[in-house]
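The pair is listed for reference:
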Amino acid sequence: MREKKMRQPIQKKKNMKHSLLAILCLLTALTAHGEIREERLVVLFDSLKSCDTDSIKDQLNREIQITLGEALKGDESFTYPFDKIPNLGKIYSDDKKIRIYTWSFPYADRTHGYGGFIQTKNKDKVTTTPLNMSREAYLPPQQGKIATNDWYGALYYKVFPVKSRGGNYYVALGWAGYDAASDFKIIETLNVDGRGNVTFGKMAFEKKGKNDSRIILEYSAEAKISLTYDASSKQIIFDHLTPIEPGYKDIHAYYGPDFTYDAYRQKKGIWYLEENIDARNTR
């Protein structure tokens, strides 16, 4: 994903090469002895977690993408638990027709790298789509479609179907570490065609006469915010964000929750903003 041009002592470079070589040798040994791909992924994820060099992290991340992509080729992978890999996020949609895998790792400058796959199931056929990043992780725009080969990078933790007259779709909730100063949470829309192909972005949100394809909640990296879905009331509920001082308006690295809540309520497939709701009635 990125190469950081940093001067390093020759001995340190040699140690880095030896460390990477040792990891690759171990992976080759596992494969040679017929171990399942999950064991290979365990080694890769553990190595990614313990690594402190950005260029090696990128190489390990590419190896994870390749290895997990191979593991997800069979239809049976849709139900395989991957329980041995705690750093691999795995969620099913509420209707069990989508499964999303995501992971992240930090860089030295406190930005993040990401990886992911989406599986869609239509009857007995499973389609697997990699989430590829053609550039560094970025803050996505609130309008427009985003292809899976130009993914912005996020960890999704909830996905559910929405029925709509204009075509059914899915909503995913996620988190991303944006940079050293701010993080963001996202309400994303997913469109799935008849072949199981996925695109991000559907004009499904209305706020004061403005329509959006996704909702971005950017806030200080030092803060914690809530973003949840309440199925009984058909509401996506989240902390209302404000700057810590009026002078920081529109500088989202200084935004945080003010202990009030807003929501998007769904009506016939469209989500309408409702401000200052009583969140106690939905918990």
Residues 7-67 form one domain. The chain has two domains: 7-67, 89-282.
